[in-house]
Structures are given as structure tokens and as C-alpha cells.
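batch job 7 of whatever, protein = Tectonic-2 isoform X2
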Amino acid sequence: MGLPPPAPLLLGLLLLLGILRLLWGDLVFIPAFIRMTGPAVTASLVGGTEDVTVSLTLLQDKEGLLPVPACGVLTNETGDWSLTVTPTNALEVTVRLKRGRQRCSSNETESSSESPCMVQALLVSASRNSSCLAHLLIRVEIYANSSLAHNASENVTVIPNQVYQPLGPCPCNLTAGACDVRCCCDQECSSNLTELFREACFTGIFGGDVSPDSDHLCSVQESRGVPGWFPFLCVQSSPANSPFLGYFYHGSVSSQRRASFGVPLRADLRDLSDFGYKQGDPIMTVDKTYFTIPQVSLAGQCMQNAPVAFLHNFDVRCATNLEAYQEQDGGVIHMKIKNGAVGGVVTPRVTYEEAADPDAFITRTGTLLSNESASRNVNVEEHYIFRWNNNTISEINVKIIRAEINAHQKGIMTQRFTVKFLSYNSGDEKEFSGNPGYQLGKPVRALDINRMNNETTLHLWQSAGRGLCTSATFKPVLFGEDTLSGCLLEVGIHENCTRLRENAAELLDSLVRATHVAMRGNSDYNDPSDDWLEIIRADAADPGAAPPVSVRGLCADVPARLHIRILVSDAGAVEGMTQHEIVGVETRLSTVNWQFQCGLTCEDKADLFPVSASVQFIKIPAQLPRPLTRFQINFTEYDCNRNEVCWPQLLYPLTRYYQGEPYSQCVAKGLLLLSFFVLAAFLSNPWTRTCKA
């Protein structure tokens, strides 16, 4: 069923006139033609819309002729259709099908649900002073399976009891009164429509297989190939007893919730500090608020109001804009913190120090326009030390390092915040790296017997700014973490090669200012014989040895990389925790040939020479594995790793491979089982006949 014969010609003329009028700036509908399959369509009328009248006409051909549209009459309702005009930047014209009329009844379209039940042609005309200026042609094709052809039922849906019946026998049936594509269990899909997507039907629960036959049911024996012993072990159960009962939501009706983009208010804080702190509990103040210190989140952002957790140490750095920096009113000096006992309060003891080099913390982003004497103090470092006793806090010591800067200074300030929890009876603030073995992430303990203050550690570079070695700081080598770091050394084209080698070797040697490394995490610094290993320094080229030929801008055998290899192994366990120890440390220098990099011309300006250091932790077994015998190498029939059948593990619970129970218990249970077999053998029928004879 299609449009009358004159309709295609009218459509072409309307499209052509619409394009030409749009170019001329005249009144025009956008779009000029609409194919309508739903309850409403919308078009825009652009151009000079002053004093414009819009009318709607139902086109009905009589002997192949279309009626002449009456542009001078305002018609907002035409039978089943209504016309609405909304003034915006242009006129928005909406044609809507009245839902009061039921044009597509189920009785009329049961036999041919694939054919449209409503085919009409509508013409929307825009006129001024009874003169037609623009037309919009609408072709209407509405099908019986469309959702607008059925009124929504106001009855409450009866939800079955999911204990006995699945809630959705066809979960992919999402549209009421219409066929859902790829949903083969949808009863509203005719056989012709189902054939179009039968090969791509939804599978599983969503596709309607809500009561599949389980593999252990006896009823599957007839349809599937099963072994001979299956009838003795299968389960007799009704097919209605589906394992997917209750798989979907339990069936209660919930009201719709509107989405909110506002930040929810935080609920009342639960303050349990009066009964003592536990590890990880937030530290509370007397005002029932969290005691907060800036910390770094998992996303790398600095959170200014992060609560401090009991017995959780941290050392973080936060970048702060000096223009947005605001010092807290009163600070921590007037803070009163609950100590974990009923009514107990502890006040932090604060000491202030002045920063020796404020420029090490501040990166300037601009030049001061005025040299006013006004200044202000900023906190560049804050160190908190909590003394704890059982589940209470006995003392809090705070050291704040301040820097005095110009009040109008602009730039980025790097602040450092550290928190340490120490026992109340500890004599000093020194921390072990483990007890007794090393803990992952703790600094590697080192010792320099050639200095009075022999306590030290291995270091790596932590570059900042341009990455120059002159501005780089040190960070400790952490146990178990393979790391690569480096910095840049400024070198000129007239650089003396001997001096370059000496400078590079001195930079690399500054990372390992130690002679020994501790095997364990609690080795005593005052006793070099307490499991301290001497650092093995591999032979390297003499930095003072000059090459036979000296060329300007070219130096050979320049130390460029330091390799630190640390051998570790497992040294047993304490209370189930594996203890790690260091069994050897080696350092080795690598050299490169440096050449000044010239552009179009070799200008006398500094070049950048990269130097780097790497740390590698190599785990070795505590005991060397037993070597394979010649029989095990050549004869692989009994090798469990290269065969599907493992004969050595035939009596697996009685072998050394079984680690679930102590070996003595496995042997005892095996002997008990063997005694049962022997007793059954003696009491069997052949032995009874022998005894009677």
C-alpha cells in the first residue's frame, strides 16, 4: 500500500522548491518531507515568520487527483490529527496523532501484522494573506505492532512467587505489544519475523532459557550421550525445580528515584575513640571531628582534609600554589585530640624551625614587580610523631619547618608531611626495616665503618625542575623495589675529559656512601659483626686515566651508569610471615663515549650528559635444588611434569608431595586404612572357608 500516484511528483516539487527558497531566504520547512511511524513528528519553519498562518490538510485522492490546499484557513485539528505551533527562534511545528482513537485493533491486524494499519498523507502549509508560501509533506505509516497502537494498561502487574516460578519466562521481551528483535521467546513475534533473526537469538537466561535441564538430572540420559555409570549417580528432580529460581530481582515494586548531581552530605561521624583506638581507626578531636593532615590519594591528587589513621605511617609531598595557600587559623598548636581513653585529651607539642634554603621548596613562576618589605611565613615541612601505648595515644610531637617569603611571591610550593607512630617506651625515633627480616618497601640499611656517624643507607636520585644533578635530591633504596633513576650533568664543548670523568664518578659514588649492608632489617649499627655484608665493588675504569688521544668535544670511557645488584632470599618464617634477608650486594659502573651534540653550528653552550643508577633485587633459593640423576634425565616415563599419568603420586596422601597435613599424620592414617583392608580380607568368604576346613 503506498501513496497516490501524484504524491511522488508533489514530493519532488516540494523538495526542489524548499532548496531554492532556502537559498533565496524565503519561508521554508526543514525538512520538507517526513516519513512518520510514531505518534508525533516535528519540523521547523524558518524565514520571515511574521504574520504566518500554518494549516494542516489530510490529502485524499479522488480519481488520482489531490485537492488544492486551502492556505487561508487555520486548521489545527483534522480528524485524528492535531497541529501545534511553538514560536522559538523559528516556528516549531508539531503534528500529533490523537491517542483517543483506536485505529489499529487487534482483530483487524491479527492476520497481517506485518502490513501497516494506517497509511495517510498529510500536508502542512504556511501562508500569509491567503497566499501559500511553504509546504511540508508527511507520509504516515503506522504498524499494528507499534507500541502506540495499544493503550497502556493501568492494572498493577501480578508478580509471581519466584520460589516456585521464575519472574521472567522471557526476559528479553522488553516491549509490550510489539516484537523485540532477537527475542525468539517473544510470543508477539510472528513466524515470518522470527525467521529473520532465528540464527542470532539471545541465549541463556536472557533469551528465555530459564529452566534448563541440569547435567546431573536423570531425564537428560535419553537426549545426551552419558557414560554407563550415569544411572547410578543421577538425580531425580522435577524440571520445574530450576536452579535459576530467584535469579532476578525478588519482585518488589520500587518508586522511581530522580538522579541527583549534588554532593551528598556526610553522615554523622561515628566516634568510638573513647573505647580505645584500633589500627586504621581515624584519630578524633574533642570537637568530634577528624584530625586531618594533607595526604596524597590513589589518583595522585593532594587531599587537604584527609583523616590520620591510627598506627599508619606515611611520608607525602603536596604541590600548592602560593596564591591559594592559606595557613590554618590557630594551626595544630591549639588542637585537642582524644587519646583513646574516656575523657582523655592530649595536646600536641609544637616546635618551629626555619628552612635553611627556601628556594629548594618553591618554584618561582614570575618576577616580583615591587620590592615591598611585607613578608609572610609558609609551612614547607610538617613532621608528626605519635607515641602510642596499647590502644591509646600518650604524646604528640610536631616539628614545623617554616620559610619566610615575600607576601606577593608567586609560584608552586612543595610541602612535605610525615606521620610516625612510635611506642611510648622507645628510646629514640630510629626505625628498623624489619624484625628480624626485611619488610617490603622499607629502606635498605647500610653502614660506613670509615665515618664516626656510620649510619647511612643506599640512595637514588629524585630529580626536580630541569632534572639537573645539581638540584636533585636523594631518596633511599627500598627493599624489594627495582628502580631506575637519573639526572643531567651540564657539559661544555671545551670540557676537560679527566675532570668530566671525575665529576661523573663522584656523582655516582655519592649514591653508595657505605661499606656494608645489613643482612636483616634489625641489624645493630653499633656492632659491625651483627650480620653486616661488605659491598662488593666491581672493577671499573680509573677516572683519572686520560685517553691516548684527546679531541675537542669527545671523551671516552666516561662513567655513566651505576648498577646495584642485591641478592635476597627467604630465611624462614616467624608466626607464618616469611622473613627476607640480603645475602650479597654488588655495585658496578658502566662507561660510555661522550660526544658534544652540535646543531647547525657548534656553539659554546652547555650540553646535557645523562647519568643514571639502577637497583635490581635478585631472589635466589635458600638451598640449591637437588640435581637430577642421569636416570631422571633420560627416563621420562615417571616424570610428572612431562606426562599426563603420574605414577609416583599414585598414593598421593602418603607421599612427600602432599603438604596438607604433617607427614606423620598421613602415615598414621594410611596404616589405619591398611588395617581395615587387612581385617576385611580376613573376614571375607574365602578365608572363612579355609578356617572351617
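notes: The longest strand covers residues 554-574.
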